[in-house]
Amino acid sequence: MKTGTPTETREQILNAAERLFAISGFTGTSLRAVTRAADVNLAAVHYHFGSKEELFRVIVKRIAEPIVQQQLQGLEALERSVDIPSIEQLIEAFVAPSVSLYRQITQEESEMCLTHAQFMGRCRTEPQPIQQIAEQEFCKSHERFLEMLQKVLPNQSPAELEWKLDLIIAMIIRVLNQTKPLELSAAEDTTQQATQVIQRLVAFITSGIGK
Fold first, then answer.
1. Staple 85 to which of 22, 45, 89, 91, CB 3.0 to 4.6 Å?
2. Which residues pair with 103 in a beta bridge?
3. CA angle 100, 118, 179 (to 5 degrees)
4. Domains of the chain in sequence order
5. Within 13 Å, how many C-alpha atoms sit on residue 30's CB side?
6. Do 132 and 184 contact (CB within 8 A), yes or no?
């Protein structure tokens, strides 16, 4: 059994649990399976997280926080720069932060990004109470995006826009699961590839969202 600082132990548990949740889902992953994968005892899991639900929530939160922060910053900057942004500008501000996760240069970081994408994809197939845990962590940027989208597309109902947001999220996760993480050593090449992925996503989403 591994020994380390409380912070190191916490990260071991999070990393192991995320991989297992991504593969087996919430119901299919037991805390004992997490302890085996993380090489810690059950008491350590309960000490750091208390329950499986809280462990799941913390995993979602550590993925969501940087994405939501960047999305909100991008949307707020866009709102300050123009009265009514174009659909393309709005979609790019929402999509880019997620794709930016793949602008990594080490193998370990790349593998972690792919695990994040697989985990979030699995979240969408979970029962509604578990899906809601994920939705709560992303709700600030999603609500802000919908508010701005309603201004750009005033003739579409809130229900229609929420449905389209759900499809956009599904598409982002699908692309991230199918795209090899960017591992190029040259930062400019990494950025160029990430930009190409963003451009393709924005073009495809824009072609259908306004209809």
1. 89
2. 182
3. 50
4. 1-50 (1.10.10.60), 53-209 (1.10.357.10)
5. 4
6. no
Q: Residue 137 has which token pair?
A: 């962590």
Number of Cβ within a 10 Å radius of residue 78: 17
CB within 8 Å of 144: residues ≥ 6 apart: 71, 72, 75
CA distance linking residue 178 with residue 172, whole number of Å: 10
Tokens 């190029």 belong to residue: 184
Residue 81 has a CB neighbour count (10 Å cut-off) of 9
Per-residue pLDDT of the chain (211 residues; tens, 9 = 90+): 666 688 899 999 999 999 999 999 999 999 999 999 999 999 999 999 999 999 999 999 999 999 999 999 999 999 999 888 999 999 999 999 988 776 655 566 667 888 999 999 999 999 999 999 999 999 999 999 999 999 999 999 999 999 999 999 999 998 888 765 544 444 456 667 778 888 999 999 999 887 5
pTM, rounded to two decimals = 0.88
Residue tagged 């072609």 (tokens)? 207
Distance, in Å, from the CA atom of 166 to the CA atom of 142, rounded to the nearest integer, reads: 10
Rg from Cα positions in the chain: 18
C-alpha span between 79 and 88 (Å, rounded): 13
Cα angle 21-16-133, degrees, rounded to a multiple of 5? 40
- Determine the Cα–Cα distance for residues 130 and 27; give it in Å rounded to an integer: 10
Q: How many CA atoms lie within 13 A of 84 on its CB side?
A: 6
CB 65, CB 47: distance < 8 Å: no
